[in-house]
Amino acid sequence: MFEIIAETAAEVVVEVLFRIPVILYRWITGKDGERINDYKTDRKRFIQFEGMKKRILVEERDIALVKSKISETLGELAESLVIDDFQFQTTDQGTIIHAPRSISFFTFHFLIQALGRRDIVAIGLVESTRFAYSAYNDPNSVNVIGQTYMGNRFFISLVEDYSKKQFLRVNNRIKTNPAYKVRALKNELRQI
């Protein structure tokens, strides 16, 4: 509990300290942040993706169909992962896909986007002891969008290089689906 309060306080302090220079920069230059794929970036939230727990929640109970879509997507990438690296758990609502720890930031989010574009509702849930976020394919752009545990909305552009640093592009003006909030998804998983 103390860690959550400390993390919240730290995020508020960082948000306030970061906001002031951004506002001054915009006021002086007249520029309104970096624009990527139709979204502006207010700030980058760097994460340590490698050590985080990664799951994809899909609203499809047919595991054979889900596996075939994931296999097709992995075949499009230069990734050494195979379908046997993933674990699948069927629930009343769909399937939980447990991604391997070795999956890259790009591949994980590309899978979410690819499943979404293949008419399978897929929501990624990424967690560590101090941070969590949910992400899904944005129907209005070529990005993956989502929300952090603290409610910050963000987008991920898959045209960037994430091999050295992984980050979320925070933009709280993005409209996200309230059903895909981290707390709601975690509560749903607890009931399973």
UniProtKB/TrEMBL annotation:
Superkingdom in the source lineage: Bacteria
Lineage: Bacteria, Pseudomonadati, Bacteroidota, Cytophagia, Cytophagales
Descriptive protein name: Uncharacterized protein
